[in-house]
Specification:
GO terms for molecular function: transferase activity. It is built from eleven helices and 14 strands. The chain is α+β, with helices and mostly antiparallel strands and about 375 residues long. It has two domains: about 160 residues, 3-Layer(aba) Sandwich (Aminopeptidase), CATH 3.40.630; about 150 residues, Gcn5-related N-acetyltransferase (GNAT) (Aminopeptidase, 3-Layer(aba) Sandwich). The longest helix is centred in the last third of the chain and has 22 residues. It is elongated.
């Protein structure tokens, strides 16, 4: 297997088409986070972004996007933002993990949402986690009928709250593909406040992430489209979601709502409305992303498995990185896996968030993984 390394300004139309073909030929790689458009978007804001091309008989058959620092430590492209990671390849392609790292000039490659199918990386996976998804089918009967059929336990309460919201605030309205950039800024403002309120790291305090989301909002391609969905009551935005979609997969990414209207459960309304509309627009899977959340248990129809870990070559830098990152990840995973630990930790973070809101100069909190 021949491996070449490229900057993203070297991603030709021919290579992009070959990357898309690899996505199309394996359903495991249909996720929009695996598309070259997402990787290229990250690369515009991350100087160390590169991609490896694997060739068989001169033909490109595999693609690995990654970020590399000055010490040769690599990480999946958009690590901490991406909910799906993989070496995207055509069926039957295999590789040697350490030889691949050597070709990329990496001593280590870190990932946290690796597609389960990636067998050459499997020996280096330190943990496997559920990633809930919703299987969707087109239904032209209308949202109330779809909701009663898909989620009978949620339907009565949700529809009642939607009617109440319409009476109290204004006529209820949902837009699946909102193109008004002002609504994207509203979503970011709500999400930023939510991060601070709950003691999490505020992603939108990082200018490069704001710019990345702005860029992805403008992308409208077959294998990657930035979709902004908004719930309105009258002219007032109530809740919003922004996430990428491919031809068949919509990734749930950033969801937030007007906190003044929390009584109406607008976040749940947003997920349900988005799922129903996505099915009508050709999406067959809504990926909710790794993480234990009550609403995911309510909505999921099945679970995928994603891996976390470090592929490494014998090297002092890789050993030091594992010693530093391994215990941090292990502690976080232990807390998240046990409700008796997770719930007190969430309460502590919310207390910190309250203090930070009261005292804006308080330093930011820790990253919490998937938004």
């Amino acid at each position: 297997m021949d491996v070449t390394i490229h900057r993203f300004d070297e991603l030709s139309d021919a290579l992009r088409d070959a990357w898309h073909r690899a996505m199309d030929e394996s359903p495991e790689y249909a996720n929009p986070f695996l598309a070259p458009e997402f990787a290229s978007g990250v690369a515009r804001h991350r100087a160390g972004a590169r991609f490896a091309v694997l060739r068989a008989d001169g033909e490109p058959v595999g693609f690995l996007p990654y970020e590399r620092n000055a010490l040769g430590v690599g990480r999946a492209i958009g690590l901490g933002l991406s909910d799906c990671q993989a070496l995207v390849h055509r069926p039957g392609v295999t590789w040697d993990a350490r030889e691949l790292l050597r070709a990329c000039g990496l001593s280590l490659f870190e990932f946290d949402h690796l597609v389960e199918e990636q067998r050459p990386f499997a020996p280096q996976v330190t943990g496997r986690f559920a990633s809930p998804v919703v299987d969707l089918k087109p239904d032209e009967s209308g949202y109330p009928q779809w909701l009663r059929g898909a989620y009978p336990g949620l339907a009565k309460t949700t529809l009642k709250k939607e009617r109440r919201l319409g009476r109290d605030i204004g006529a209820f309205r949902f837009v699946f593909d909102e193109r008004d950039p002002r609504m994207l800024r509203t979503l970011m403002r709500w999400k930023s406040a939510q991060y601070r309120r709950t003691g999490r790291m505020d992603r939108f305090a990082r200018p490069w992430i704001v710019d990345l989301v702005d860029d992805l909002f403008e992308v409208r391609e077959e294998h990657f489209t930035g979709v902004l969905s908004v719930l309105y009551a009258g002219d007032r935005p109530v809740a919003a979601h922004f996430g990428p979609r491919s031809r068949t997969v919509l990734a749930a990414w950033f969801t937030a709502y007007d906190p003044e209207l929390h009584y109406y459960s607008p976040g749940l309304m947003m997920h349900l409305r988005t799922a129903e509309a996505a099915g009508r627009h050709g999406v067959t899977t809504m990926d909710l992303g790794r993480g234990d959340k009550e609403y995911k248990d309510w909505l999921k129809t099945r679970e995928l498995r994603v891996g976390e870990g470090f592929v490494s070559r014998p090297h002092p830098v890789s050993a030091a990185h594992r010693l530093w990152r391994g215990p941090v990840r292990g502690l976080r995973n232990t807390v998240n896996a046990h409700p008796a630990l997770r719930e007190p930790a969430d309460r502590l973070l919310k207390t910190v968030g309250t203090l930070r809101t009261s005292h804006p100069l308080t330093p930011g909190g820790a990253d919490h993984g998937t938004p």
